[in-house]
């Protein structure tokens, strides 16, 4: 393809190959936004200067495209890779460093992305965007560079890069919690759906490290006639028409939910999980004992 009005075809600068390390271990102490690894690749077309003749190509529209990782993160010019917690920034580093984005166009003079008008180079940086999970970024094309509507260069990773991170750990320090709700008169429940006051929270302690993703599930028997957030009473002489709701952050938890509740934790954290409870009227009330013994299950990965 030739440029409009030009006499010289658009250049073909081939492929720039960037070789990141084959294996990278991300330390748990690395802060979000920190650099995991960085590498630069240079075009083999060292005579690129002859393609930068202003009278032929200038002005033109130059376009750097990220073609594989296109989901933006909260960090500037950093896009999410397929590995959790690992983002990528691609910069044209010939001449002035300039990050390229996903399918964006930047109109600049010819040769802007050339190093002294001779050699094109790109730098790929892997950046921590959050808790890192093990995975592999595979080799192959990740970007391209265009003049007007012609691709003049491709950017590729030359090999697979395996990402490893310290295994997350989490220990539950509180194995039994007693939440007293006291004696409550049946007359205080005006109608089905009425609740007693929420108890003071009982705290469950967790000790976690290496950024685990911790979830919590309430396990037990759903109260007959009650919503899925109501646990059935248990034991001899149990009252009728009443169940118990267990609350986390003031929100009733669903019994045996298939979508566990996410618990916020940070690296090497001592975490306190506040749990409270209340009675919930499910139907006609018969006086009796009102105890329930559900289980809170914690999982992490």
Would you mind describing this structure in some detail?
The chain has 301 residues and is mainly β. The chain has one helix at residues 54-57; strands spanning 15-18, 23-25, 35-42, 60-66, 79-80, 86-92, 98-99, 106-108, 114-115, 119-128, 135-137, 140-147, 150-157, 161-164, 169-172, 202-209, 214-219, 231-232, 240-248, 251-252, 261-263, 269-286, 295-300. The strands form 5 sheets. Strands 3, 5, 6, 7, 9 and 10 form a 6-stranded antiparallel sheet that branches. Strands 15, 16, 18, 19, 20 and 22 form a 6-stranded antiparallel sheet that branches. Strands 1-13-12-4-8 form a 5-stranded mixed sheet, with no helix packed on it. The two termini are 52 Å apart. Pfam families: Fimbrial, MrkDrd.
Determine the structural class based on helices, strands and strand pairing: mainly beta
Strand element count: 23
Approximately how much beta-strand content do the residues carry? 35-45%
Largest sheet: 6 strands, antiparallel
The value of Rg in angstroms is 30 Å
Please outline what is shown here.
By secondary structure, the chain is mainly beta. 1% of the residues lie in helices and 43% in strands.
Structural features:
single chain; mainly beta; 6-stranded antiparallel beta sheet; 1 helix; 23 strands; elongated
